[in-house]
Amino acid sequence: MKDFSSRSIALTGTLISLALVFSYVEALIPVFAAIPGFKVGLANIAVVFALYNLGFKKTLEISLIRVVLSTLLFSNALSFIYSLSAAVVSLIVMGLMKKSGLFSSLGVSVLGAVTHNLVQLMVAILFFNTKELIYLVPFYVFSGTVAGVIIGLISVLIIERTKGMGYESI
Amino acid sequence: MKKRTLDIVLIVLLLAICIAAIMITGRRSQKGSYVCITVNGEVQTYLPLDVDGVFPLNGGTNTLHIENGSAYMVEASCPDKICITQGKISKTGQQIVCLPNRLIVTVTSSPEEVFY
What we know:
The structure holds two protein chains of two kinds. Chain A has six helices and no strands. Chain A is mainly alpha-helical. Chain A has a single domain, classed as Arp2/3 complex 21 kDa subunit ARPC3, CATH 1.10.1760.20. The mean pLDDT of chain A is 85. The radius of gyration of chain B is 19 Å and the shape is elongated.
C-alpha cells in the first residue's frame, strides 16, 4: 500500500466523510437515541472497514480526523475528551485483536465497542470523581456488546461484498 | 469458520457476565440516605431521607413527601402528573423526574455526589 497514491487518498477521504455522515445521521434520527446513553456508533462501520482494508495506521488517521471534525461540527470540548480517548483506545484494541487472528471482524467490532464504552466510563469517573459510576460497568459492557454485534454484522457483510473489488490492495 | 465460533463464544460470554453482574449489583443496591433535588440540571438542595416531612420544591411547583426513608411526589403543577405516578424511591440511583418543571429527585448515599 502506497500511503500517498491518489487511490489511497481518495478512499481515506471517502471513509472520513462517510464516518462523519454516520455521526450526523445518528444524532439526527431519534431511533438511535431511544435508550438514554445508548449509541450504535454507525461511524464505526467505516472504521472497521478501514481497519480490514487499509491497515492500522490509515485507520488511526481516519478515526482521529473524524473525531476532530465531528467535535467541531456537532459537539463540545468535553465530549471531545470522551470521543478521542475512546476512539484511540478502542482502535488499538481492535488492531491487536485483529492481529491476534482469534476473532473475525464481528468479534473485533464487539471488543472495540465494549472498550469504547468502558473508556468513556473510565474518563467520566476520573473527570467527575464519581466512584458510584462503577456500578454502570455491566450496563456499558452490555450496550457495547449489543452495539458491537450490530456494527460487526454490517461490517462483515460490507467487507465480504467488497472483497475482490480492489480495496484491499489500495 | 473457527473464528465465527470464537466470536459467538465471546458475545455470549460478555452478555452472560453483564446480566449476572447487573443482577448481583441490583440485589445489593443500598438504601439511600439523601435525595438530591436538581432543577434545570443545577443542584438545588439535598434532603435527608431519615427526616419525615412535606417539602415544597422549586418555589412550590412540586411537593415532595418523605416518609419512612422513602420519597414520593404528592403534588405537581404540571397537567400530566407523571412524577406523582412514579411512586416511592428509596434506593441509591432511583429517580423521580418532572420534565415540565425540569425537576429531578435522585436518591444518593451522600450529600455531595455529582450527577449529570
